[in-house]
From TrEMBL:
It comes from Paenarthrobacter nitroguajacolicus. Keywords: ATP-binding, Nucleotide-binding, Transport. Residues 6-247 form the ABC transporter domain. It comes from the Bacteria. The keyword Transport applies. This is ABC transporter ATP-binding protein. SMART domains: AAA (SM00382). GO terms for biological process: transmembrane transport. Belongs to the ABC transporter superfamily. One of its GO terms (molecular function) is ATP binding.
Length: 273
């Protein structure tokens, strides 16, 4: 039995663009232990979301392997049964919960439907899920438009937890929420991984958010890992000039836009952009 919940090795993905191709994922490897949380950071186009989509089966890797609790997942899942098996292993929380929830269903119906797909059901389980994500029993009778953004994201998390996955992938899952609600959702995620052993892959461009909810971080640039290590070390004592550029780009006390532009020009000159 593997000591890791999620093992990704040598993941590759390129997309055809006109007569050429763009490499979205170049030999990416990482592991997450039980209850661990990995941050995947970088600017738009760095390959973060492509990696997330490959993990849940929405994109097919060109090469590489994905193991969940020691079992290798197929690079391309065919048929309903195969897709359900993968969904049982890895669930995804999207940036926009309103767009990912069925507006016709109440919260209770949404959770029950997710469980029925995997042969589980019951009002007691629905009530337990609502309580687990900090919602009241009355929220079970609500439809998505009757909830706040934070409440809808709690429902999306509850729907993932309904089938007890091994891994949760969160793609910019709090970026649309205000700061106070973000803090509540991040605290919830930390509670969930501590109590359940679920592994989290947290995809974000927001380094402040990543620092609150991850143990380790991968810094991505144009499909490749430029820096990897414990979150505290990477964010407080970065080794890569690109990581330093990302950190300097965050507005805050003493923030200097001119310094950011200078760092970017130096980095792009170095990599030949």
């Amino acid at each position: 039995m593997s000591e890791y919940v999620l093992e990704v090795d040598g993941l590759q993905k390129a997309f055809r663009v006109g007569a050429g191709e763009v490499v979205a994922c170049n030999n990416v490897s990482f592991t997450i232990p039980p209850g661990g949380s990995m941050g995947l950071v970088g600017e738009s186009g760095s390959g973060k979301s492509t990696i997330a989509r490959m993990l849940v089966g929405l994109e097919t890797p060109d090469a590489g392997t994905i193991h969940v609790r020691g079992r290798q997942l197929g690079l391309q899942e065919r048929g309903r049964a195969a897709r359900l098996r993968r969904a049982k292993e890895i669930q995804m929380v999207f940036q926009d919960p309103y767009g990912s929830l069925d507006r016709r269903l109440t919260v209770a119906q949404c959770l029950d439907q997710a469980m029925r797909l995997h042969g589980v059901s019951g009002s007691a389980r629905v009530a337990a899920l609502l309580d687990q994500v900090g919602l009241l029993a009355k929220h079970g009778d609500s439809k998505p438009h009757q909830l706040s953004g934070g409440q809808r994201q709690r429902v999306a998390i509850a729907r993932c937890l309904a089938i007890e996955p091994s891994v949760m992938v969160l793609d910019e899952a709090v970026s649309a929420l205000d700061v106070s609600v973000q803090a509540q959702i991040l605290a919830l995620l930390n509670e969930i991984r501590a109590s359940s052993g679920i592994a989290l892959l947290f995809v974000s461009h927001d380094l402040a958010v990543v620092s609150e909810v991850t143990d380790d971080v991968l810094v991505m640039y144009r499909g490749s890992i430029l820096e990897q290590g414990p979150t505290g070390r990477v964010l407080n004592a970065p080794e890569s000039s690109y990581t330093k550029l990302l950190i300097s780009s965050m507005p805050g006390p003493g923030w200097d836009p001119a310094d950011v532009l200078e760092r970017r020009a130096a980095f792009e000159a170095k990599v030949g952009v």
